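[Structure tokenization] protein backbone as discrete codes
[Encoding] learned vocabulary of local backbone shapes
[Protein] chain in single-letter code, fold in tokens
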Amino acid sequence: MPIKDEARRRFLKTAGAGFAGGALIGLPGRADASDDGEPKLFYDVRGFGAAGDGKMLDTAAINRAIDEAAAAGGGTVYSRAGNYLCYSIHLKSRVAVYLDQGATILAAESAADAEKSYDLAESNKPWQEYQDYGHNHWHNSLIWARV
């Protein structure tokens, strides 16, 4: 192989690895973007109070991050590695949810107090008698959205 082709291939491999590494290193920094007047692209759920320890309920923090991203016109809600114990998560338009490698959303056990558990199932009348319970009920799910 001519030296010119070998040098070009070595350059392309190095440049590609540097670009990919730079993008990954930059992601968490962008997730915690400062108040510089620019719209945030990433919303780190830990910045909204999520623990990601699998013990504390992280539902409110994740939903706050989604709400803020939606209010800003869209963005990515970012969850770094951890176990996020949750009840109903409400997705919104123009908001992406990104789970980093090692991030898991865990469905919490239903609480005795319905106010502190999954969202209440919506009515599906007049079809309720003709369909199974899960066919038309979405609000009492772990993750749901309404347009």
The mean pLDDT is 77. The longest strand covers residues 53-57. The beta strands are 42-44, 53-57, 75-79, 82-86, 89-91, 95-99, 103-107, 143-145. DSSP finds three helices and eight strands in the chain.
